[in-house]
Amino acid sequence: MLAYTLTRLVYLALVLAVMSVLVFLVTQAMPGDVASMIAGQFASKEVVDAIAVKLGLDQPLIVQYGHWAAGILRGDLGRSLVLEQPIAPILLEALGRSLVLAVVALAVVAVVGIGLGVLAAVRRGKLTDQLVSGVSYLGIAVPDFFWAIVLVLVFGSYLKLLPTGGYAPITDGFLPWASHLVLPVVTLVLMLLARIARLTRSSMIDVLQTNYVKFARAKGMPESVVILRHALKNALLPTITVLAIDFGLILGGVVVIETIFSYPGMGRLLLFAIQRHDLPLIQATILIVSAAYCLANLTADLLYAFVNPKIRHGMRAS
């Protein structure tokens, strides 16, 4: 398992190196001149050129990338051109908030979604299966922003039970902190739950038809042991991958949800940086989100190898 983990870490480092080059090149190709935006609309050419020299924008791209990559390796993500602050503390604060959303939402999705999927598979063709399948189709068909708007109108505007947006640090108390998380978390759960439930149901149905499950039943094992110990362990393999991808999605890809609820996470920070053409902040945010995706997939690979030893044995053989 250690050799497999080290191999995956090497692949992760290579992917991140390639991603850093792509992020740098794509952001450099964005329209607009950073020096002109900083100097202002009525600044003279001399002022714009002086700012460009100060920021190193007059140097070749390969030199600019070298300075940027070297700073990242030292833990220096640069300074925000708009906020005029170091980027690292800004990113850490936004990342921490997005992590809270991701962990809480995925914990609920994993427990409820896998439970519903297993229940539907075990009771295939019956009323329970039809209800779970019907709700899943509805969840997949309805866009995520629709759930957000409905929750805001019902629980925020009409019932006035929960805040409709913003964020309260936990230092303000557990209840204010939790109350600001409820609506975004429920929206994410509704957005992701249907896919996890249907995927688990499909995988579980396939596994329940395998010979080793039939053999376990023929030996007279209790149905709960057959389901939980023999079938579920193998049926969870594709679900683990999707949950890992969803984790990376929540960290940086739910701009609409964070905007509707005015939640100051990574998605909203990236939108802020793009709207103001804050190049260093855009680069750092995209790179951190990309790293989160890679780490989530690495975690999925390791869980795969832990659940299914054939994977790491195959890796060792190759």
TrEMBL record:
Looking at the UniProt entry, the stretches that span the membrane are 9-27, 99-122, 134-154, 174-194, 235-261, 281-307
Keywords, A to Z, come to: Cell membrane, Membrane, Transmembrane, Transmembrane helix, Transport
Keyword Transport on this protein?
yes
Hey, what's the signal peptide range on this chain? none
Question: Domain named ABC transmembrane type-1: which ranges?
Answer: 95-304
Question: Acetylation: present as a keyword of the record?
Answer: no
Its main localization is membrane
Regarding protein family, the annotation reads: Belongs to the binding-protein-dependent transport system permease family.
Protein name listed in UniProt: ABC transporter permease
Q: Which portions of this protein are annotated as coiled-coil regions?
A: none
Topology relative to the membrane: Multi-pass membrane protein
Q: Where in the cell is it found?
A: Cell membrane
